[in-house]
């Protein structure tokens, strides 16, 4: 290579590094969401890991294994139960639809007629189908295919998300095990990029990640568990599935009330007035209290993500990363929003401290 000039050698070296970086990005791209979630979980639970490490006498591998088991129990196990429950519910729905196709539909219950606006028309249409079995079979057959396809697609998405969660938890073991070295690399890289502002920016990112995980994901998990417990006490079928639905909808504005209000109305329609009132009281004083009291308290440590950005983070994360994006979407947007606010406040502070008449004070 002596016949090449130094600029050409530098250009070739840069090109080689870019190709290497591109190759690494292509290799790691399928695991990007799992890596990001593992980093978020590891950082958010790092104080617990340090306490666990202290208890086991400083043995990092054992502490990392114990923390990985704890994260599996808290994060993966509920979704594994949800996938199994969804599969069982799908089989039950298919069996019920098959039985109705064979025996014909039952007559409409009295509460259908009492529905506002469309109650009488819906009851009449239901009654006509009940009397005309062939027409009912045709109508139900039209819906059976799309319903089964939707159920299978939902199960596939949940199954893939469960695999990604399992992979993320597996990666967290190594993040716990080598967390101090990784943190040192991150601090050094941030120092080179951001200079003196690096410690402040890393602090903002850390507080935002912890606030988002505890304030959004933690409270959502608590709401789902409490809702499932209340539904189970009230004797509602598929309480675990409804609790999982409460967890998912808790990322949306007024999401959980949609679940427990619907369950309460179903109980009232079944004649279980007492249990319907119980579900309403349980939802108001326990499930919704977490959203109205605990979540703002936990989010107070970081810049509260605006409602619109929270909704976009939920939907965009779901579209970009699949089921695992429920966790990543709000977290990534919260970090970006906090960094933007920090940058804006730093610029304003520099203007206030600049001498009068200087360009920075303008």
From TrEMBL:
<comment type="similarity">
    <text>Belongs to the autoinducer-2 exporter (AI-2E) (TC 2.A.86) family.</text>
</comment>
<dbReference type="GO" id="GO:0005886">
    <property type="term" value="C:plasma membrane"/>
</dbReference>
<feature type="transmembrane region" description="Helical">
    <location>
        <begin position="213"/>
        <end position="233"/>
    </location>
</feature>
<feature type="transmembrane region" description="Helical">
    <location>
        <begin position="240"/>
        <end position="267"/>
    </location>
</feature>
<keyword id="KW-0812">Transmembrane</keyword>
<feature type="transmembrane region" description="Helical">
    <location>
        <begin position="62"/>
        <end position="87"/>
    </location>
</feature>
<keyword id="KW-0813">Transport</keyword>
<feature type="transmembrane region" description="Helical">
    <location>
        <begin position="150"/>
        <end position="176"/>
    </location>
</feature>
<feature type="transmembrane region" description="Helical">
    <location>
        <begin position="306"/>
        <end position="328"/>
    </location>
</feature>
<dbReference type="InterPro" id="IPR002549">
    <property type="entry name" value="AI-2E-like"/>
</dbReference>
<protein>
    <recommendedName>
        <fullName>AI-2E family transporter</fullName>
    </recommendedName>
</protein>
<keyword id="KW-1133">Transmembrane helix</keyword>
<keyword id="KW-0472">Membrane</keyword>
<feature type="transmembrane region" description="Helical">
    <location>
        <begin position="273"/>
        <end position="294"/>
    </location>
</feature>
<keyword id="KW-1003">Cell membrane</keyword>
<dbReference type="Pfam" id="PF01594">
    <property type="entry name" value="AI-2E_transport"/>
</dbReference>
């Amino acid at each position: 290579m002596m016949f090449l000039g130094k600029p050409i050698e530098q250009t070739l070296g840069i090109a080689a590094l870019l190709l290497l970086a591109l190759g690494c990005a292509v290799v790691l791209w399928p695991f990007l969401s799992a890596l990001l979630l593992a980093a978020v979980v590891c950082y958010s639970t790092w104080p617990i890991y340090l306490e666990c490490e202290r208890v086991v006498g400083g043995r990092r591998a054992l502490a990392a294994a114990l923390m990985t088991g704890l994260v599996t129990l808290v994060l993966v196990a509920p979704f594994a139960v949800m996938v199994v429950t969804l599969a069982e519910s799908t089989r039950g729905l298919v069996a019920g639809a098959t039985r109705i196709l064979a025996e014909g539909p039952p007559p409409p219950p009295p509460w259908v007629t009492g529905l506002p606006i469309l109650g009488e028309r819906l009851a009449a249409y239901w009654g006509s189908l009940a009397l005309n079995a062939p027409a009912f079979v045709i109508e139900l057959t039209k819906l059976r295919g799309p319903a089964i396809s939707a159920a299978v697609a939902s199960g596939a998405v949940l199954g893939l998300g469960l695999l990604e969660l399992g992979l993320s938890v597996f990666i967290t073991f190594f993040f716990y095990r080598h967390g101090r070295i990784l943190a040192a690399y991150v601090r050094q890289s941030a120092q080179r990029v951001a200079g003196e502002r690096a410690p402040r920016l890393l602090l903002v990112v850390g507080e935002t990640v912890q606030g988002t995980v505890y304030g959004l994901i933690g409270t959502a998990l608590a709401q789902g568990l409490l809702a499932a417990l209340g539904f189970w006490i009230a004797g509602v079928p598929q309480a675990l599935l409804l609790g999982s639905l409460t967890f998912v909808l808790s990322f949306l504005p007024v999401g959980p009330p949609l679940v427990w209000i619907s369950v309460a109305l179903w109980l009232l329609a079944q004649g279980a007035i007492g249990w319907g009132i119980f579900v309403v009281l349980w939802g108001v004083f326990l499930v919704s209290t977490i959203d109205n009291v605990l979540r703002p308290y936990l989010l107070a440590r970081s810049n509260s993500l605006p409602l619109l950005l929270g909704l976009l983070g939920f939907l965009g994360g779901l579209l970009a990363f699949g089921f695992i994006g429920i966790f990543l979407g709000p977290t990534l947007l919260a970090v970006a929003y906090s960094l933007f606010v920090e940058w804006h406040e730093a610029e304003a502070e520099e203007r206030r401290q600049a001498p009068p008449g200087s360009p920075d004070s303008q």
